[in-house]
Amino acid sequence: MTAPNHGARHVAIIMDGNGRWAKKRLLPRFAGHKAGVEAVRTIVRAAGDLGLEAMTLYAFSSENWKRPEDEVNDLMGLMKRFIVSDLDEFAANDVKLKVIGNWRALAPDVVALIENALERTSGNKRTTLAVALNYGAQDELVRAAQAAAAAGEISEAAIAAHLDTADMPPLDLLIRTSGEVRLSNFLLWQSAYAELYFTDILWPDFKPADLQAALDHFARRDRRYGGL
Ligand code: FPP
Questions:
Q1: How do residues 158-183 score in pLDDT, each as one tens digit?
Q2: Which of 13, 110, 115, 135 could form a disulfide with 106 if both were Cys (CB 3.0 to 4.6 A apart)?
Q3: What is the fold of 10-219?
């Protein structure tokens, strides 16, 4: 019997459509982001159940600062609450938290919460949940290239070794919800050979069955990595 993850080890998601989900229900955007956090909880649990080693979620991009101040504050508030209130859940599900991006530049209270959560979950082994916070792939690549240059070697291997995701399995599948078909500066290096899956489902409506459908789609692809 084939495994339900079809051999995929690392799945990344651009969680898009919270605002439209709320608008459809005549609710404020905040309600959409709150429902988005619920979807995160469910999908992280499903990732563990499916035997995925890693999941990377695009929570806040380096471009999201351009949103109205109230919305930025709402998103940061939700993130803080998620990191604090889900520590028990991470322990119960053996989830190791990782944060990628320029998160050390965030407000000191957020940085402290993240540091505590990283430490508290560092021994967990089943699934790594990487949350991209203040993340931009071009910024990540510049930082990796600078670190590689400082170590005296610029090569594919040296740059890969300095990416934020260096200790994670290769990216197998990148999902974007809500019907938009672009990468929006997310995991540009890592997606070189990843399968891309776009769905019209809005993020708060994305369910474990939809993750399974994306993995089934992944299983039908013929990955040749440039060969025949
Ligand atoms: C896109 O929806 C979503 C975001 C910019 C933020 C994603 C954040 C969450 C799901 C909540 C926090 C995450 C974690 C990991 C706790 P949008 O606002 O761009 O929607 P729209 O395109 O419909 O307006």
A1: 999 999 999 999 999 999 999 999 99
A2: 110
A3: Undecaprenyl pyrophosphate synthetase (3.40.1180)
At 227 the pLDDT is 75
Any idea how long the chain is?
Answer: 228
Residue type for 60, please? F
Q: Is the CB of 44 within 6 Å of ligand 1?
A: no
Looking at residue 9, its pLDDT comes to 97
Catalytic residue among 18, 49, 64, 172: 64
Q: Is 82 in the pocket of ligand 1 (CB under 6 A)?
A: yes
Give the separation between CA 35 and CA 147, rounded to whole angstroms. 38
- Ligand 1 near 101 CB (within 6 A): no
Tens-digit pLDDT profile for residues 114-157: 999 999 999 999 999 999 999 999 999 999 999 999 999 999 99
Residue boundaries of the structural domains of the chain: 10-219
Q: Is 64 a catalytic residue?
A: yes
